[in-house]
Amino acid sequence: VVVGTGIQLIGQVTPAAQFELEGADEVLFLTSDVAEAVWLRQVNPNARSLGRHYERGKHRREIYDAMVEEILASVRRGKRVCAVFYGHPGVYVTPSHEVVRRARAEGFAARMLPGVSAEDCLFADLGVNPGTSGWQSYEATSLLLRRQRPDPTAALLLWQVDAVGKVTYDDEPVSEGLRVLADYLLELYPPEHRAVFYTAALHPIAEPLIEPIALGELAAREGRPPGTLYVPPLPARRVDEKMAQKLGLR
Amino acid sequence: MADGGGFTGFLIAIAHSRDLLERFHANPERAFQGWNLDPRQQEILKRGNMEEIQAEVRREHPDAIAAWWVMIETWVMTPDWVMNPDEPEPPESY
């Protein structure tokens, strides 16, 4: 079973995920929060980190393969295995999907349980209802590379803005990538249109990070920005009368 | 000392306990009793700054830092060409 632990330490672990964590013969985890790793070892003494597969300079696909192989090796030994990722295990996580696919291909029963993603936290913290205008969600670098065109009348979420234009994480600023992203967004939105940098709270005693910014000021922002940028929609388009007639609504 | 004590132990406990969380908001000093937190750690908790909190947890568990960085690095870029092996890799310059 692949589970997610949510964004906030412990509080967003679902009862279903907790059940799997406690009942597993082996727990293999990848988490961004050291406190969470400590807690996982308390919940299940047979918990161990998948993090050791990372080596600087190693191709990312090799890292993922090694993680998937370690999880599958336990499954093949007949163990009840729980693989743990933070947030929602299916959102912006590659090895979680891969291990379910490969386990099933080998004839094992494998499934993924949903978790609380950063996007879920954003809906609550910013008071956004994705059904109101529609919802678009892109990885920032991928959006630029493929010149995907968001509809500015629907809400837009950009992930990994703190690494836009980069393939590896480091502490260097992303000013050039941010400038390119700003130029791209300004083809769609007026410069005074206000977006919000957002990071969900990782602990119950912490507040989410919410930083409003006009898109016209995005390129000049200094330092590493928070990871997620929410761009509210422009005013909705008028209803298409012909379409309304086709639907029998006129 | 409650449940092992320490900064990380306090964070885990407060995430588990509505009662401790409410005590923390009402009277932090009282909530800290029994947790063996030095004044600097208490101030970090009171400020509630996520980066400060995480840095202190890493300081308390230096053996886990490598794993933390792994997650950040592997999570940060999971582009299409990783998710979909058939997607051609971008040029090296990217």
Strand order of the largest sheet of chain A: 5-6-9-7-8
**Most extensive interface:** A-B, 49 and 39 residues
Q: Spell the H/E element sequence of chain A.
A: EHEHEHEHHHEHEHEEEH
Structural class, from helix and strand content of chain A?
A: alpha/beta
Termini Cα gap of chain B: 52 Å
Q: How much strand content do the residues of chain A show?
A: 15-25%
The profile of the biggest β sheet of chain A is: 5 strands, mixed
Number of helices of chain B: 7
Report low-confidence residues of chain A grouped into runs of 5 or more: none
Topology:
The complex is a heterodimer of chains A (250) and B (94).
Chain A: E1 2-4, H1 15-23, E2 26-30, H2 34-43, E3 47-49, H3 60-76, E4 81-85, H4 94-105, H5 118-126, H6 130-133, E5 135-139, H7 140-145, E6 155-159, H8 175-185, E7 194-199, E8 209-214, E9 228-231, H9 241-246
Parallel strand pairs in A: 1-4, 2-3, 2-4, 5-6
Antiparallel strand pairs in A: 6-9, 7-8, 7-9
Chain B: H1 6-16, H2 18-26, H3 28-32, H4 39-47, H5 50-60, H6 65-76, H7 80-83
Helix pairs in contact in B: 1-2
Textual characterization of the structure:
The complex is a heterodimer of chains A (250) and B (94). Chain A has nine helices and nine strands. Chain A has helices at 15-23, 34-43, 60-76, 94-105, 118-126, 130-133, 140-145, 175-185, 241-246, and strands at residues 2-4, 26-30, 47-49, 81-85, 135-139, 155-159, 194-199, 209-214, 228-231. In chain A, helix 7 (140-145) links the parallel strand 5 and strand 6. Chain A is globular. The N and C termini of chain A lie far apart (49 Å). Chain B is mostly helical. Chain B has helices at residues 6-16, 18-26, 28-32, 39-47, 50-60, 65-76, 80-83. The longest helix of chain B is centred in the C-terminal third of the chain and has 12 residues, at 65-76. Chains A and B meet through helix 2, helix 3 and helix 7 of A and helix 1, helix 5, helix 6 and helix 7 of B.
